[in-house]
Amino acid sequence: MISRTIHTVKQYIAVSRNLAQYDGSGFAVVLSRILISRIFYGMGPDIYNLRRFSKKRLRQTREYLSLREREDLQKILCPKEAWGLVENKLRFYERCILHGLPTPRLFGILMIKDAYVPDGIPVVRSRQEFRDLLCGLLPGQYVVKPLDGGHGWGVSAVRVENSGVTNLLGERIDLDEFYRQCIDSLYQSAGFLVQEFARPHRMLKTIMPGPGLGTFRVVSFLTRDGRVNIPYAVVKIPVGGNVIDNFDAGGSGNWVCPVDVATGCLGNAVGKSPSVPVVSEMEKHLETGAIFREIVVPCWEEVKSTIVKAAQAFSELRMIGWDVAVTDSGANILEANWDWGENIIEVAHDRGLRFELTEIANNARLTVPGEA
Length: 372
Known about the structure:
By secondary structure, the protein is an alpha+beta fold. It has helices at 2-23, 27-41, 45-50, 67-77, 84-87, 89-98, 127-135, 175-183, 300-313, 342-349, 354-364, and strands at 106-111, 123-124, 140-146, 156-161, 164-167, 191-196, 216-222, 228-237, 255-258, 269-273, 276-282, 319-327, 330-337.
């Protein structure tokens, strides 16, 4: 209990000090404001920083969804019995193939526990079979990820060459050790997929110059009359040597940019940088100097039409956050999320979504309280 209290106090002090240095405000003023936001609005220092409330009125907190409101929205639009369609990556892959949706090819699965496997996907179980699967792939980049994982947890990227298997930094991978890591994974997944590693479109390389792929989180709602509404989109940008683009409330070091759904134009990136340890906007990519607002997403109309088709194919879930790779060959759907993380949309677009989502959800739910 005492250690937790000390940790909390340090957290308040650290965030207040960083914000005071960045904004040029006094430390005491910033700390007092964060304490008020916690007492009266239930918003701690990390959320205060993430939502950039140093530049907002505290009463704007009411514009953001509470945890209870978020959970209620999910229960209404995403029945629990349908979660497996997107949580289980094999079932998701099968549904995508059935409906002709573009998605990276699966080359095999390391099966740890018995689970459903669609026809035509090679299954390996032993150390030697896993080694043979990886070494038998054509030269290129691949991703190995948990069958039922999320948030980028447990994902590894590998490069297969004639000389062997390496990570994306060119360091040779001990395949026996890699096998043990999968088998003994803390994520307790039923298995690990070996899948094609999508690479960003050549026009996006200036904002994705590293080894990782930045994906577009595109949110769809299926209305009661069968139309698909796409109200929000962002792009998650891996920074430095990060292979995974997970934002993790800014803790991963990656950034997120808002995307104008109508035009595909980007806004400024949001996140932390080595020189600014608080969540803030960045006009240029630190490594390439590319100006984010000058970027227009290639194939954007194709992305939207693909999401429309996908939302109709997964109609059991009325709202979905799609992770889409934009490659030289077009749009590729990597994953779908029933818990699509409205916080990343709020952070990128710098506004609360409570009232907007309430209206959108009323048009998406199959029945509305009070209706006959």
